[in-house]
Description:
The complex is a heterodimer.
Chain A: H1 2-11, H2 16-42, H3 50-81, H4 85-90, H5 95-124, H6 136-163, H7 168-182, H8 197-202, H9 204-216, H10 220-223, H11 232-264
Helix pairs in contact in A: 1-5, 2-3, 2-5, 3-5, 3-6, 3-7, 3-9, 5-6, 6-7, 6-9, 6-11, 9-11
Chain B: H1 2-24, H2 29-50, H3 52-75, H4 80-104, H5 106-113, H6 115-121, H7 126-156, H8 165-190, H9 196-203, H10 206-211, H11 223-229, H12 233-245, H13 257-288
Amino acid sequence: MAAWLGWVIESNWTDPFLFAVYSIVKPVSGAAILVIMYGIISQGNFDSAMFPYIYLGNAFYIYVGAVMTGVSWAVVDDREHYKTLKYMYIAPIHIPLYLLGRGVARFITGSIAVFITLAAGILFLNVNINFAEVNWLLFFATLVIGVVMLAMLGLLLAGLTLMTVRHEGFIGEATAGALYIFSGAIFPLNVLPEWLRPIGYFMPTTYWLELLRRSLVGNVAAAFPTLANFSDLQILGVLTGLSLLFGTVSVYVFRWCDSIAREKGLIDRTTNY
Amino acid sequence: MNQRNAKFILREGKINLAVQGKYSRKDTGWRLFLKTIIARAYPRIIGQQREISWVVFEVVMPMLAVIAYVFVYRALNAPEEYIGFVVMGGAMTAFWMNILWSMSSQLYWEKEQGNLALYIMAPNSMMAILLGMALGGMLATAMRAVAVTLLGMWMFDVTFTVSSYAQLFLVFMLAMVALYGMGMMMASAFLMFGREAWHMANLAQEPIFLASGFYFPIKSLPFWVAAGASVIPLTLGMDAMRQLIFPTGFQFGFMTVQTEIYILAMLSVVFLATAKFLLARVEKLAVREGRITESRK
């Protein structure tokens, strides 16, 4: 039900065609900025391993903005905009599940955007994915683990959002923006200053994006030294471990924030910001 | 006791007279127009600075994009000018975001919060309100843009070499006038939107960053795409500024600085005139259709 509600909220402001355009134009434009930047500097050499690295990383990163921010944004939307969060709290539902459900709508629109971005890359931009050589099992296993991990990170941010006054809208965006830099989404981690790299190594999104790239375009891994010494299975293990760790932390942080928010009467607080 | 009461009444009476004197003068014409501009600009220039965390977020968010794109160029071993292009583009995003969220959508927010009806009821010009919003937004955003530029210069060792301060000032001012004129025009159009206003503003981010060449020279785009994107004043404004502040910038120029100045001047006039025309029309339409006080969540 929460997923359906989320979908309706996301899409019913306009007709389906405009909604489809809206869902596609933003991510494709974001990808196109990188493609042009790459094209200018490489003088149109799209055969280098760097190009699929950037393109695929950016395409799958759409899920981070969609799922993680989608879950936490539900708090802002319900509390500030529709002023319905308090009604959700008094309804016989489990709030974390409700918030995760609200993220499902964003997952669907995000999936469409990822698909379109990948299709545009394959069809028009020489992103070389040989479907016969794709490791589908690894791809889908990674995708599922990653999306669940992002939803749990979204729950963590939702907890923080519950406790935050006025700037709650920025929390998801700022986190997604920071992860974009530290996850090696569009450049290898070894480009970062050495003292910043450990942050990237601690982020599950780093391993998630690496595995997605490896499953689709195997040769990308060898071209960059960051995680080249790790096998797929090792990275999958690290991703699963970090996802479990962040998932557990998220559950506890949300519970803690939720109890504080109830105690302080923050559930129905509106600031008009 | 009675003496104290009498003193108090006398003092209160004096204050009331002073207040009455101050506010009983009826400003009309250009004086009212100017006062309205200042009154609407005030919360933007002063009020926004009071919320320090907003300032931090509004500097940090563009910086995140700047950092990401700078590292992409570094990963590609791009010439150093491109790092400067990204820093400058990142600073200019503050203006575009201000146009989208604090100009175009502003009348829509005001409608949602019930202020729009008060604006229309008050004996002032709506054009003055929009000009006040523009002026305040421009000055407040300029501070954010400067902060992003300074941070970018410090973090990535970017240096600017200005070839003509006069031209740079002229280009920047013309780009701002045209851009905020465009914002005023869009504010009128957004007045007719309901919930879709938020989505429209959201939609006009990445595509504009792409088309206007915020992070790369606009010359890299096909000619007609770049020409079409030149309708957005920041496109030519940034192109001209890049030519003026980087020693090799002229190599990346879409048109000559002179031509871009003429076009920006033309855009300024067109956008401001259209904003005035549209505002009058849309205001009438919104009043007739009862959209001034509606709130469509």
